[in-house]
Design a protein that fits this description.
- The protein is mainly α and 195 residues long.
- The protein has 6 helices and no strands.
- Helix 1 (2-30) crosses helix 2 and helix 3 packs across helix 6 (154-194).
Length: 195
């Protein structure tokens, strides 16, 4: 399982590396700036966003459990949303998205106790925390625009980092929501059986 997760993380790092490299080439040519200077600025920006995403996820996880109540309307996935994910063929690529639940002490890549209502309830709550963290990270990455005015080439660098960060956070949100649809059905069935 760890090997699979490191392979998933490797793909994320490859996407980030290619984005950094291509943007650095483009920006250095367009603005007639030193490639290594642009590469350094781009790398620092990426590192800043990774740190901020980590802090955002940590703060999200520290929120009270009432915030991560899977019965709240915002977390409930409709049939049409589930169908949308099916049209995107999410089943074929969802396993390629890194799952970093080991940082919070709860892995969400496999349901280990499908007949345990307490476990399923906790799983659904952790999905909600994951949604909060990833959703907030999309917007906290935008803080980079504050640096966009310093040099003319900062703005395109910031925009690329923000865009890639948003995509890399939207994909896990989609996977979490796709999985929560089925888990909520399991949770309701288990609660009926235990009443």
């Amino acid at each position: 399982m760890e090997k699979k997760n490191s392979l998933q993380l490797k793909w994320y790092l490859i996407i980030i590396f290619i984005s950094v490299l291509l943007t650095s080439v483009f920006v250095s040519c367009f603005y007639n700036e030193n490639f290594f200077l642009i590469l350094s600025v781009m790398s620092i920006g990426v590192l800043m966003v990774i740190i901020i995403d980590g802090l955002t996820a940590t703060l999200a996880r520290l929120m009270p459990e009432t915030v991560a109540d899977f019965n709240k309307k915002i977390y409930v996935v409709s049939k049409s949303e589930k169908d949308f994910y099916n049209k995107l063929k999410i089943k074929t690529w969802k396993e390629k998205i890194p799952e970093i639940g080991h940082f919070t002490g709860f892995r969400k890549n496999k349901v280990l106790q499908p007949k345990n209502p307490t476990y399923i309830k906790r799983f659904l709550m952790e999905i909600c925390y994951g949604e909060i963290g990833h959703f907030a990270s999309i917007f906290t990455g935008v803080f980079l625009l504050l640096f966009g005015w310093i040099k003319p080439y900062y703005l395109p660098i910031c925009i690329v980092i923000i865009f890639v960060n948003a995509i890399l956070n939207i994909l896990p949100i989609m996977v979490l929501r796709y999985n929560s649809y089925s888990l909520l059905i399991v949770h309701k069935k288990l609660n009926k059986n235990y009443k």
